[in-house]
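go over this record:
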Amino acid sequence: MKKTSPLILLFIAFTFVVNADTNKYRLTIRDNPATSIVIGWNQVSGSNAVVYYGTTDFGTNWSSYPNSKTVSRSVNYKSMNNRFARLTGLQPNTNYYFVLRDNQGTSRRFWFRTSSNNPSDRLSFIAGGDSRNNRTPRINANKLVAKLKPNAVLFGGDMTNGDSSSEWNTWFNDWQYTIADDGRMFPIVAARGNHEDSNNSIYNLFDVPSSSVYYAITFGGSLIRTYTLNTEISISGSQTSWLSSDLQSNNNATWKIAQYHKPMRPHVRSKREGNSQYNNWSSLFYDHGVKLVVECDAHTVKTTWPVRPSTGSSSDEGFARDDNNGTIYVGEGCWGAPLRSNNDNKSWTRNSGRFNQFKWIFVDQGKIEVRTIKVDNANQVGEVSNNNRFTIPSNLDIWNPSNGSVVTITGNLSSPTCSITSPVNGQSYTAPQNITIDASAADSDGTIANVEFFVNGNSIGTDATSPYSKNYNIPSDGAYTLTAVATDNDGLTTTTDTVNIAVGVVAQTIEKRISSSLDDVEENETNGVVYTNSSDIELVYDSYNSQGNQVVGLRFKDINIPQGATINKAYIQFTADETSSGSAGLTIKGHDANDAPAFTTSTNNVSERSTTTASVAWNPSAWNTAGAAGSSERTPEIKSIIQEIVNRSGWHSGNNMAIIITGTGKRTAESYDGSSSSAALIHIEYTSSAATNKAVLASLHKETNYTSLKALNKAIILSPNPFKSGFTVDMPNIESIGDIMLYDINGKLVYQKAKVPLVNTLEIEVEDLKTGIYILKIQVGNHSVLKKIVKD
């Protein structure tokens, strides 16, 4: 008999105690998410599992964690040994790190953050459902959970297709993609769908607080109460009685929202109307101020206008639009289930579509914001910061239909307004230095309590006194993002738009993808008709409808490149929609404009635009594979075109840029309407430096003798200041007025009027300028007068 050496036996024994044999991790919620959490897992083998946890990250050193919790509930179900540890007594809005330790070893280190218990804090949710059996979009959606980092995921049922053990095991394997790379986990609030054969599938796998699988969870103290309802059991009777009682008992909640599986009025013709839900719940929702309802099951996409139950002459299928007091219904579930056509719109449908998606929901005391996220490009999407989950990450594909990309629900209180007035977006500094960040804030129905300032998502302090400002010592060269958050006396908050600044010589890369139907268009060669919603983009010949050799327009939004930056590299990446190998000769130019407007359906709207002097010839290689997005589908270097545009005196960081393509031959690329995640993408690498603009600004100050011009400064009045679209220069009894020039804070000339006539009052219209601080230079005889003015 062959013998095994003691050394090998020791090695095997050691191997078995290194890692606990656990998997299929999940977080769920039974009670207050600010002070409790449920940690769930599958115990593959081993025993005596304990969760070790605390607010300090000790990695996998389990013995260093100060707290421990044994298994609270065990249930062997769907071929898994489901274990749940219910943690209580936690601190709100706090990071907790944990490991699982059993008699076989220790798991990797995970962590979560408890929800805030302060209703003034903004919250984030993801809501959707119907992951079913299509794993690719299911995994994509799961990956976006890890990247968007919500307070919770509201999941409306139909996790699997057949509710089998093997399907559930695979589903939980895929759910691990919701865990961020740093081990952060996010709780799921689960509802039952019709593909869950019984309540046990949800109760036993997610340890929800009710075996009947209808329950409510309050987030953010009294900010929002979320109702999870069950359309797969009797709707009338005890479930609706409980709902009515709970709604009445929780009138103190600022917001109430609900989720359940089957919609009241599905937007797919083949689906049965949800009359029981309508008869029992719609009036309760309306009467008790449930402002948002997430529905699933139909495998399509919809958002509605606010509606109320009604059978009046203006109603449609039992609802009428009510913008003041109605409930908005969204969803219909596309987390991976087979998609169905949105062929049953109502008069109160806001927008509908057909694609893989979920809802991204922001909630504060003043409003709820709902965005629909297309999930197919998950691998290309950036990641929000753990400290700021409300900044939209790069390449996130937000659905932008005809009625807008954001559904906003407002309450009775008004949120404050807030904007950063200095620095301005795109401002540059020659070197690290101490700067002052200024913000304006106001509240229409109260007062401003404070303004908090953030650099790169990290707070640098608050200011409770107007004018609001904070000093910041820039530590090193690089790119910085600035935001501010205003809080009013009601606890409502508003976050400013992001201001980007650059310090020193900064090399950066940006990528922007076409983001709406009006941004990739085709113009008919013969009659100039502009086609805005094609399922693909022919570059450039199209036989359909006698389009001929089209003029193609591509518009890329929010190009954050400072004026005068050096463009080092630029190209446009297409994705092949069809194969094509015939000869093609294309010419690429830019729209010679400071801020390219959206294309319209006006005749010749593309070809009549002025173009850059710079142009690039492109003779594309064969496109041999549909779906390919490689070097063959990429334009040649177009940096000369981009350089010409950003060198324009009126170019500002954050402006829009358009490219116009003409020629002969054919290559067929994906369009926004065909596949938004594969639409054309512009890639730009650039270097920016503050030296040039700062030198100009310095020279302005140097040539002005303030002491000798005090009288002139006092006599010349600018009003209004701040201004919206234009302002007036009052110059009474002043002769010898020469040129008038307006510079931005970087010293860049943005307006000039030469040889001003002798007038007492001059109107200056500069509506196109960005918000920020400007300097007006007025030539008076041999002197220059400088006046500061702010655009609101």
Observations:
- The longest helix spans residues 135-148.
- Residues 511-688 form one domain.
- Residues 1-18, 691-709 have pLDDT under 50 and may be disordered.
- The chain has five domains: 15-114, 118-410, 417-505, 511-688, 692-791.
